[in-house]
Amino acid sequence: MRDVAIIGIGHTKFGRASETSLELFSEAALQAVDDAGVDLKEIEALFQGAALPGFEEGQVTPPGFSAAELNLNPIPATRYEGACASASIAIREAAMWVAAGEYDMVIAGGVEKALLMGTLFATRTFAMACHAPTEGPVGLTFPGVFAMAARQYSRNYGISIDKLREKMAHVSVKNHKHGALNPLAQFYKKLGDLKVEDVINSRLVADPLTLLDCCPFSDGAAAIVLCAAEEARRYTDDPVYILGTGQGSGGPLSKMEDLTKPVSRISSARMAFKHAGLKPSDIDVLELHDCFTIAELIALECMGFFDWGEAADATEEGQTELGGKIPTNMSGGLIGKGHPIGATGASQVYWLVKQMRGEAPKGNQIDPVPEYGMTDTLGGDFGTLCHIILGKGK
Amino acid sequence: MEGKEQEEMEKEYTVLTFAEYEEGLRNGKLLGLRCASCKKITCHPMPVCQWCGGRSLERIELSGEGELTTFTVIRVPSEGFEDDAPYIPCLVKTKEGPCVVGRLDYDAEQATQELIGKRVRMNGSYTYKGDKYSGGAHTCPVFEIQENKSVTQINAD
Q: What fold is seen in the domain B63-157?
């Protein structure tokens, strides 16, 4: 298998968009092509994450239309659906096809337009990523799933719910701080100086999670251009290499041993580390799936960055902040930057590449420029997990 | 038709269908499957044992008793559940081993962390009428805390 490089990146402004999903994806794809300095005609295939386009715009099979919008048809264009991990599995597949030698140059990314659905219907459609037969009639929502995980975390480690709410709030404070510094974030220049009390005292969504423990509904797109590593330096002086990827599948919540230790996430992260030949201590920066504050803690532990039950204290101590042991979500994460679900994995890759080029916004850039970064993306209630490890060198 | 093909046609892949499981819930029964290989119990039903993947399963009825492992109070519901909120989804580890997801029959304003670990018993079921996307109505079990009898009745059937 060949090594694979990222040579171009694109990212729309997250938040509320007036453009169609097709326009949003085109914008991100054209930015990525321009960034790479390649001609559209060189693109041989398109890999698109999109979770709910049928419910958002009455559009299924969007990637064919995206290819057509870019005058790329009839190249193969395929949709990848893994709920909120859709773009990550699209990128993983794209990397596999390039590594296998089938294509030399492809576009991968994702798009979502969830805001127009409104909270009630968006909550309904997102809940479609729960196990419909058993979790459907219960009326489980995504905040509900993670609220249940938070209560298990509290019980497992003997941290009272009130104490845990404080510790979780630090995730929201940190991620909003960095989201407010990110011009492409939904909350740019907003909520940058949140206090722990603000998070705790905001409206309860699913006990014990409040509105500020949750990421928002969002519109947006992100895309990257991938090529065979040996060709990368023809296009750019600072390619970023895909060193390893992992993917894991979960199941109904009731078949899980412990919601705070999802096997799908643990095995996916280990697969990526094994593939890359790296370990957690090698990684300099993380973009991980903080759909809810508790989710960031669970992810940090499952990926092996902290022992079980220690991510809450570590976050409170600033170990996941700039200058800490492992800076996490310096883009603002899903909470501060926004979460257009089908695009999120590509956005995470975009911001890692920005970090590795030293181009992250002031106040978010890690110094020295990181060598290795890792994404973590979760779809459904631990149904689809994907990890991607990037490096400045091979 | 060859004998082997006939056998394939008549082979039962699903010993307990989901519809039968839901009908059981509506009749106050928690139905499951026992694996002939590992002897463990699968619930809700699957075509293979949830523990070892075994293919030889027989129908059984669970006691409906277990331990509350976690819950939440939903304040912001999804479309279709506006009239239910606040309501309490929960996970229960049954006495027989498998966990099931259901609703907890308890006063949402009084539901605190201390409930976790308490013994619960299935005391009914909840049937959601469904929406355009749910493939019809579906039913889940409802549990009550055994030490504290039901405080409020949620819309159990």
A: OB fold (Dihydrolipoamide Acetyltransferase, E2P) (2.40.50)
